[in-house]
């Protein structure tokens, strides 16, 4: 009887069998052991996270009182003590709260994201019917980079991989607006109903805006070099297999990368929110951003479009605005316009899109956000 090696050689192919080698078996055993270690270490860490998270509010109150007492005894002019204490408590409470949520969620979604590499995402979107592609692209935006400028490189990659134009725009709109950070922070500040409504309306905007742009047949407004790259696309995607240890490291790297980029926005956003919380009188913003001001949504979107931030930086401001009397729909329209459309984003997009297509993209998304703003104000 011929050996396996002889049979392989007779067929003129490389000799290989389905039986795992000793190296493969050792690697798999080591991966299983590492997975068990991560799980055993993760359980007490999650319990500690939960205990610290639930203790933030009373600790922040105590720290705020001690801070104000120290400042008042230091012969410093601090103005109204109650206003200052309210602002300081807001800052001491929201800063660790937002960062704890940010780290936990970015790590978890980072692991999920390791299954959706740019190559795999392109493969999922390429060749789909446009209507199906719009839905898939909007959903994939939830687990991809969460600010508009970091989503643009993937958007460019999709265009060069011959993914339909409308589908790529659905992704570009969804990625910064409907992402894990926005949803978790909205849940922590407003509850699951507001987070769910925000997610559903954001996805609808992304799908319909992408579908609308696709129907307009504006491919001729792409820069010429995009077509040259598309002509050379082969459709071959080389994926490297990852074990669970690799995915854990991917999640940790996501925390280091994303939190490292946005921490300053988070602190600045919370500081602005703290100032509004402590010093803006109750109900003051109702006359400017309340439901009674019919023009407030329009103005909020026009103000938000030139501003650049991400969800982690703008949501603390949104929370403080609502607390002081601003209407939910108005401030969420402001937030959506800030995170979904920004001046730096349009500058980067100019590399691949001609001005007319950029204007159409901005206009379609802005109209969708305005409609959602008025809808929120009418229903909530």
Description:
- Residues 1-18 and 233-239 have low confidence and may be disordered.
- The chain is mostly helical.
- Helix content is 75%, strand content 0%.
- The chain has helices at residues 4-10, 22-72, 81-113, 118-125, 130-140, 148-160, 165-177, 180-190, 192-215, 224-231, 244-279, 286-289, 296-304, 311-323, 328-340, 343-349, 355-379.
- The longest helix is centred in the first third of the chain and has 51 residues, at 22-72.
Helix fraction by DSSP (H/I, runs of at least 4): over 70%
Unreliable residue stretches: 1-18, 233-239
Supply Rg.
Answer: 25 Å
Q: What general form does the structure show?
A: flat
Helix-strand topology string:
HHHHHHHHHHHHHHHHH
Strand proportion: under 5%
Lay out the secondary structure.
Layout: H1 4-10, H2 22-72, H3 81-113, H4 118-125, H5 130-140, H6 148-160, H7 165-177, H8 180-190, H9 192-215, H10 224-231, H11 244-279, H12 286-289, H13 296-304, H14 311-323, H15 328-340, H16 343-349, H17 355-379
Helix pairs in contact: 2-3, 3-8, 3-11, 5-7, 5-9, 6-7, 6-16, 7-9, 8-9, 8-14, 9-17, 11-14, 13-15, 14-15, 15-17
Q: What's this model, at a glance?
A:
By secondary structure, the protein is mostly helical. Helix content is 75%, strand content 0%.
Task: Throw out a few tags for this protein.
0% strand; mainly alpha; 380 residues; single chain; flat
